[in-house]
From TrEMBL, chains A, B:
Organism this protein belongs to: Streptomyces phaeofaciens
Residue ranges of domain HTH hxlR-type in the record: 14-112
UniProt-listed SUPFAM superfamilies: Winged helix' DNA-binding domain
Molecular function via GO: DNA binding
Transmembrane segments: none
Keywords in alphabetical order: DNA-binding, Transcription, Transcription regulation
Native organism taxonomy: Bacteria, Bacillati, Actinomycetota, Actinomycetes, Kitasatosporales
UniProt protein name: Transcriptional regulator
Superkingdom: Bacteria
InterPro entries the record matches: HTH_HxlR, WH-like_DNA-bd_sf, WH_DNA-bd_sf
Length: 121, 121
DNA sequence: CTGCATCCTCTTGGATACTG
DNA sequence: CAGTATCCAAGAGGATGCAG
């Protein structure tokens, strides 16, 4: 059994739904991975994540902060500077996410082939 | 460094986007976890996953099949019987997903508290 | 620089009805 | 039983403009 009974039951009753939504979020995964290397500034994150809008970056960071995964530090200089870093719990999630990303890297080729062969039918 | 340079670069150029979308998908995660325990019938999955619509179950399974993560087996009896099971690669992803679900279990409490305390402000 | 507010579009996904 | 097809509502998310 890969999944314990307790978890299976949790799946069916959707108690995990809200947490999995966090993990499954498009941008959260990328942000968690990047912050795994250390603190980053807002503008730094924005440049590092290709295709993210300012709105989504802010919303995602707020949501990560709300979940206790990220800490937001404001330095009131002019112009202001804001740094984001993982909390200890955030780091443990970042580890999981990194593992998932490595899986993606390892199997990207396979998935691409599967898709092409499926679509060929 | 939790994330290798290669992956960081992949993140910024979004080459991983399509694979992460798969992983991040709401229903895919649950289905992968359930199938980790062994093959399941369509109706079985439907009953096991609370809140999923017939439409989404079918769409998600098709998409998993397309990615080479799930195998669909039709037994042409009356009524027809369709079984779904993980491919070898699907099993490796299921392991990752199970790990993520266990993380969720471990930190559900913490996240709940963080949210309540954040919202209290 | 770091954001918030608004508008507006497009996708996601639920409900329902119908088929082999 | 295991889908497919259609319709439709809700929400995600981009673009833009403004503010501290």
């Amino acid at each position: 059994m890969d999944v314990p009974d307790q978890v299976s039951e949790a799946l069916t009753t959707c108690r995990l739904r809200d947490v999995l939504d966090r993990v499954g979020d498009k941008w959260s995964v990328l942000i968690m991975a990047l912050l795994g290397d250390g603190p980053r500034r807002y503008s730094d994150l924005r440049r590092s994540i290709d295709g993210i809008s300012q709105r989504m970056l802010t919303l995602t960071l707020r949501s990560l902060e709300r979940d206790g995964l990220v800490i937001r530090t404001v330095t009131p200089t002019t112009p202001p500077r804001v740094d984001y870093e993982l909390t200890p719990v955030g780091h443990t999630l970042s580890k999981e996410v990194s593992s998932l990303i490595r899986w993606s890297e390892r199997h990207r080729e396979y998935i691409g082939m599967s898709r092409r062969s499926y679509d060929a039918r």
